[in-house]
Amino acid sequence: DLQICQHRAPTCCTKKMEESYQAAVRRERTQSIQALNFELKYMIVGHITAFQEAFESLLRFAENRTSSLFETAYRPMAKEAAEPVKELFTDISLYILGAETTVESAVLRFFDSLFPLVYSRLINPGITDLSEDYTECLRLTRQDINPFGHYSKNMVTELSKSLWASRMLSQALSLGIEVINTTEHAAVSKECSRALVKMQYCPHCQGLTLIRPCVGYCLNVMRGCLASLAELDAHWRQFISTLEYLTNEMAASHELEMALSGMWSSINEAILHAQLNGPQLSATVDKVCGQPKQQEGNLSSASIVPVKEVTETQTFVMAHTSLNNKRREFINYMKRSRTFYASIAERLCDGDLVMRDSSTCWNGEDVV
């Protein structure tokens, strides 16, 4: 009553043993693919972590630099500016991780929060009544009177270009893991499990436990079983090309590192622009929002202090070099995995599974 290992010679197998063999080959095929996938998956997961750590390091550096700007050049508003600065960098971090937000909304929300502080602490430092209504009016007015000139828009443009590739790379790596995980649990068809039993276990039914399959026979069986995975080949090659494009984009002229490290400078220029245009801004704000309460003998506008570049270059250079090295190492590894799905049958038929250096092997019917 054997269904798979039918042979003219006497046999020591039963139908129940054949069923056990079918369960065994399904389990073994899953384990073999998992073992092949492990290195690739380990590499991608490792780089997701490494890239994320490098991004966070650069973001922390840029945030510290921006906070230092307020503490050294704009002390009257430093304490109140801390929260908007923190929110801005949290939003950027979430954007890179793929959150449903945009760089433009994050940057403009920051400048909306910044304008009431610049207006009441630097342009008109005598204002005592900064009520919720008045603050909100200033926030909304910012969008119409554009107190920060072209600097806010420039910042959006620079960051959008550099952060886009980082966001896409982050999402692409997660997609890569998803694809690999899916291939590990692809169902084994009935025909495939029967072919694998015939190849690996039918010799055992005749007591030939040391004979292994012939190489060509193994390749034919594995290619048939893995046809659905081999179909991924063209898509996987395209995926590697996309990763290459994204890593090159990250290293191109609009680098993430340069854009982040220059944020404090853009914010500084924007505040200086608002201060220089203080009288015109005050006149417009008074018309729109009314005149707030002032201290007696209105204090003079805070003097404009051009800020010198904060010297934390070493930290930045280390983070920059680290990210560049990780990019190069990663893309070189991924390029070597281009043929991963095209060569999966060859790799499964390598090693101990087949007979390579012997004159005898199993061809599915007999020892040859």
TrEMBL record:
The gene is Gpc5_0. Its main location: membrane. This is GPC5 protein. GO terms for cellular component: cell surface; extracellular region; plasma membrane; side of membrane. One of its GO terms (biological process) is positive regulation of canonical Wnt signaling pathway. Keywords: Cell membrane, Glycoprotein, GPI-anchor, Heparan sulfate, Lipoprotein, Membrane, Proteoglycan, Signal. The keyword Iron-sulfur does not apply. It is found in: Cell membrane. InterPro entries: Glypican, Glypican_CS. Belongs to the glypican family. It comes from Toxostoma redivivum (California thrasher). Signal peptide: none annotated. It is a lipid-anchor; GPI-anchor. Cell surface proteoglycan. The lineage of its organism: Eukaryota, Metazoa, Chordata, Craniata, Vertebrata.
